Fold this protein.
Amino acid sequence: MPCTIDGIATVRADRRRMYQLDPKRLQELRLTRVSGIAANVWFLGLTSLLTDVSSEMVTAILPIWFVFAVGMTPLQFGFIDGLSQGVAAAARLASGLVGDRWRRHRDVAVVGYGLSALCKIGLLLAGGAWGLASAAIALDRVGKGIRTSPRDSLISLSAAPERLGLAFGIHRALDTAGALLGPLVAFAILAALPRAFDLVFVTSFFIAVAGVAAIVCFVRDVPPSQEPGAPARRPSIAQAVGLLRDARLRAITMAGFLLGVFTIADAFIYLALQHKLSTQPAWFPLFYAMTALVYLVLAIPAGALGDRFGRTRMFLVGHVLLLLAGVDLLAMPAGVAGALVALALLGAYYACTDGVLMALASAFVAPSLRGSGLGIVATANGVARLLASLLFGALWEARGMPFALAVFTAGLGCALLACLPLLARMKESPRP
Amino acid sequence: MTLAPSMRLRILAFALVVVGCAAGIAGYAHHVMHAQEAPPPAAAASAALVAPAGHVPSAAAVAPAASAPSAASVRPAPSAAPATPGASASRRAAAAPLAGAARASMLVRSTALGDSYGHLTRAWLDDPEGPREVAPLACDRVHFAAGSGICLTAERGALTVYRAVLFDGHFAPRKTIPLAGPPSRARVSPDGRLAAFTVFINGHAYSMPSFTTRTTIVDAISGDSLVDDLEAWPVIRGGEAFKAADFNFWGVTFNRDGTRFYATLGSGGKTWLVEGDFASRRLRVIADDVECPSLSPDGRRIGFKRRDTANPGGRFTWHVAVLDLASGQVRVLPGESRSVDDQVEWNGNDELLYAMPLDSQQSSAETDVWAIAADGRTPARRLARFAFSPAVLR
């Protein structure tokens, strides 16, 4: 099998023995499978689709709303945004552990989805009070932080180990479809009824409620079976931290962090494109839609390819694509062709890395600690990206956009080289 | 495929929730549509006239009629300004005044949340709360005199673009000038030949601890730059050259024939009133502690905002004050206790107009226009609700 490069094949045999689901439970799940993927994955995808329609329709109009109705400055907006992202990262770590301890990932995820739905009502009630409005937005981010780890755990626990990549690919494709639809719904409403911001919030709320209903009605917890040698008691914080003693998970976390630090945020890529093409800011939604479309189309094939040829390879290939996007922005002459190539590369990068990283990490975390493990990996990557955005912004300000792009492209290349031995260690590590 | 009974129940429950949500959205949409169709009487006048910002409103919108010229609003162009740049354009400026009836009126930016938000509206000074005409232009800041107007706009998006639009008495744009930052102050000279504007380069408010501004003067007809950046002009204080790296200028106000102007100079946390004239292209410091000056139509007094030295709560606050140019005497008007952050506008020679946010934190997007007597004998009164950046049409 070509998978041996990242140790998937060696681990697969162990996992059959160690991380296998309760046969009875597996039987039950199989009954509700659609085309070989557990119903849980499809319905979590439906929940994410609805929730993303709900949240992206608000995100799309937020800048306009803040300026027109609330009278907030971009500086205040940026401060609130940064603060809530930090809180959301902490929430993501905690919710993974809580889901593990209570063995109720589904319910923790419902709390996260429910909180975000309630925030839409908060925005409606806030009216022009910017304090209330920013509190609602911060809580929405926290809700997103809370639901991410338990949701990814449920996906990974519901999928057969050799189809983890496909399962995450399906979920991310549905999720991205929602993100693509959301702004369309919002602008359709505002086109029909100008300045009916409240209708946008009400619509967003009800769509979020439908999303919560989907997870409550159809998604079920997958309790990990009790294996010999597995912790008999509920997982503790110490055990969650102890996950990092596993060299392979540590390698994945470090690779995710290192590559994340040199990841150019999509907003900066759009800005760079705008800079290069001298287009109006009105083009931004188009850049965003192009990227999301490519992500949507490639998420499932990329996940399936990862399952077949190795998820580590896929993850690294994804970052090579991002590196190529950086090279394209630096070297290509200004023109539509170069822009399209950059956006396609960015979309393909997301397809090859976002769900794939979770699928990759899932294979190295025992089911009883899945939430904590995925939370650690995702948070390390997320914090790194946040740092990357700050660094990129500072470099752009100090030395200009081409300089920042060059530094990040070179940095990403070095990080990729550094990650090769890190990930190779996973192959060499002794069988558990 | 047969479904377990529990599964059927779940599908039913989900279907019910989805139907309920759809009904909720439809119900609220119906409510909003109904509300937009039948606005309350007070809002009806403006709501019926406008389209969203950036769109040309329906035929009902006001285009100040050329068929209703008003001799009162046409100030003959001064003949005694031969050395001033842009003088050749003065006849055209006076040819197309923003015509009014015999009634006095003012141009304001509407801050009523709704379709007309941000649009220029004309309020009648004898009935300021009555129906207002809505113009097709949307501005953050406006000024108008003798057939020439300036409209500072911000096209907000992921990257906001700022522009100054010079327009004529029919709100038709003459020229568009890109701005380097958020709009702050705008003035047209009383003869309609010159326009000045101030934008923030760093920061976005005078209450911020460090901000930098840029003040530009252009020909109000052609848009040609006359003073690209006021910082290029030499400053004289007490007969000696005065220069510092942190000079900022803001808030220009012109004299009647546009040959001289006043502005604020800020440096090292202090402010001065400077007087500039186009003949010598120099600035002269004539008073301390004057911000955002506004010259009265008779040219005798300057209305301005004076910073409160007490600096309560670490926040800058300002009081409306009047400086008599002949005697140099300053009188802070006691009739307004709130902080005023605006370049006041004279209504005749006896009253000052300024905008005031609805809430005390001064963060609201909604503002009213207030009026206060220049002699300080009476308290301030609210003149027009939901209005900003008043420009009295003379």
